[in-house]
UniProtKB/TrEMBL annotation:
Classification via SUPFAM superfamilies: Clavaminate synthase-like (SSF51197)
The keyword Phosphoprotein appears for this protein: no
Protein name (Swiss-Prot/TrEMBL): 2-OXOGLUTARATE (2OG) AND FE(II)-DEPENDENT OXYGENASE SUPERFAMILY PROTEIN-RELATED
InterPro entries: DIOX_N (IPR026992), IPNS-like_FE2OG_OXY (IPR044861), IPNS-like_sf (IPR027443), Iron_ascorbate_oxido_reductase (IPR050231), Oxoglu/Fe-dep_dioxygenase_dom (IPR005123)
Protein function: Probable 2-oxoglutarate-dependent dioxygenase that may be involved in glucosinolates biosynthesis. May play a role in the production of aliphatic glucosinolates.
Provenance organism: Salix viminalis (Common osier)
Alphabetically ordered keywords of this record: Dioxygenase, Iron, Metal-binding, Oxidoreductase
GO molecular function: dioxygenase activity; metal ion binding
Length: 314
């Protein structure tokens, strides 16, 4: 199971898309997205609409945040798991992260910013909001392509309105030994779609369907797009939600930023009837993502090989 592989993730170029679903380029990219998500549940996306200043500024903002004293960061301790500050976990000592709910909404980000910088930090909140807005455009393009390729157009608005955007920023210290050390344990994401952007320190690994681990080495221009369990359930298993982990080497710190489209509390995730037939019997009973997360963070949920299956598998 633990073997390395020379498999490479597909790289999909979104740079030449007009805002024009139905054009030839749109359909071509859509078919690449579908294929990559069936096979890997993940791909690298080239998306040049995000200006270089914002790409650069985001890591400045992230470093500034993690450089705050621990007590300050802990002021934003999480109400929901992984939504606020997380760090100093004995099982993943190199890892810390901060979640920013509704990261595309300026007032929400500003009020969270004031917790950390009572005197305000407009530069920080502006950077977070612009980055999140730009990346959420890629999230919307990808999800629209998914909905179309599954033939679920009539659910497009419902699907798009069913989520909020959570931005999580992550820091992994370098282990500063010659050994490779665990940065973040293997898991599947529980949300709909995750889009990751990293500084140039690699470490993210993705498990292919054959069990081998692919080292991701995204270029400075690319984003890693990944499917979570909620979309896997909605598509009734047609798209893969991959296990992934972070393994750290060397001295340099790795910074990454993830935009997570997260189903709203109270929204029931239910595979549309179009997804169910003799070849594709229903995999999961309808569920509320927030309640599912509640189960995931219990001991039984953490132990289960697939928390979603244990929670609501048919
Ligand atoms: O840091 C990364 O690249 C991955 C983070 C991750 O998998 C997660 O936050 O769910
Ligand atoms: Fe993840």
């Amino acid at each position: 199971m633990g073997s390395e592989t020379s498999l490479k993730l597909p790289i999909i170029d979104f740079s030449n898309l007009g805002q024009n679903p139905g054009a030839a380029e749109w359909d071509l990219v859509k078919s690449q997205v579908r294929k990559a998500l069936e096979e890997y549940g993940c791909f690298e996306a080239l998306f040049d609409k995000i200006p270089a200043e914002i790409r650069k500024a985001i890591f400045g903002a992230v470093e500034e945040l993690f450089d705050l004293p621990l007590q300050t960061k802990m002021l934003n301790a999480s109400k929901k798991p992984y939504h606020g500050y997380v760090g100093q976990y004995p099982q993943v000592p190199l890892f810390e992260s901060m979640g920013i709910d509704d990261a595309t909404i300026a007032e929400e980000v500003e009020s969270m910013t004031r917790i950390l910088w009572p005197q305000g930090n407009q530069n920080f909140s502006n950077t977070i909001v612009s980055f999140s807005e730009q990346v959420s455009e890629l999230d919307q393009i990808v999800r629209r392509m998914i909905v179309e390729s599954l033939g679920l157009e009539k659910y497009l608005d419902e699907h798009m309105n069913s989520t909020n955007h959570l931005l999580r920023v992550m820091k992994y210290k370098g282990p500063e030994t010659t050994e490779t050390k665990l940065g973040l344990s293997s898991h599947t994401d529980k949300n709909m779609v995750t889009i990751l952007y990293q500084n140039q320190v690699d470490g993210l690994e993705l498990q292919a369907k054959d069990g081998s681990w692919i080292d991701l080495k995204p270029t400075p221009d690319s984003f890693v797009v990944m499917i979570g369990d909620s979309l896997y359930a909605w598509a009734n298993g047609r798209l893969h939600s991959p296990y992934h982990r972070v393994m750290m080497r060397g001295n340099a710190a790795r910074y990454s930023v993830g935009l997570f489209s997260v189903p709203k509390a109270g929204y029931i995730i239910k595979a549309p009837e179009e997804m169910i037939d003799e070849e594709h019997p229903l995999l999961f009973k309808p569920f509320d993502h927030v309640q599912f997360l509640g189960f995931y963070y219990t001991e039984a949920g953490q132990r289960a090989p697939s928390a979603l299956k244990s929670y609501c598998g048919v």
